[in-house]
Amino acid sequence: xxxxxxxxxLLAVLVVTAGVCDVLWRRIPNWLTxxxxxxxxxxxxxxxxxxxxxxxxxxxxxxxxxxxxxxxYLLAGKGAGDVKxxxxxxxxxxxxxxxxxFVFSSLLGGVIALALALAKNRLRQTxxxxxxxxxxxAHLRSPARRHEELRIESARALTLPHGAVVALGCLFFLxxxxxxxS
Length: 182
Hints:
By secondary structure, the chain is mostly helical. It has one domain (5-120, 158-175). It is 73% helix and 0% strand. The protein has seven helices and no strands.
């Protein structure tokens, strides 16, 4: 579903600001995400389906993003700011567009994480940690509870500011023409 220019601009301002905040301070502030979530819902309701995703699609986008990212938060794989950022993105773009943004962000994040692991000479440890994560999840346990290096707040963890990755995913999505309908 193509988005009107106003929603595209709201999305771009939100994710670029969140990305910069996450890189500089490793936090995504509530003063940014809460108004963006509310604005996305209100604008989509006001414009209605056809000219924008509409209120139902926006609410479903926020809800889907919250459920996916809250699950990751409970596993200590994402911070609370990441949850709120993606819920706001979902409210702005609707659930279908959010799924595409989620895929773009995940793929870009994987490539960036691989490059970071290589640059820090931690590829072997990172691959081992991925095995530990899969093992723990297969046994319905939180990987971060038993392995300090897998906690995002741990000094031993190799972390990546996810807000910046989401920003890149959203900007790639906006630039790809998906939202322009072309």
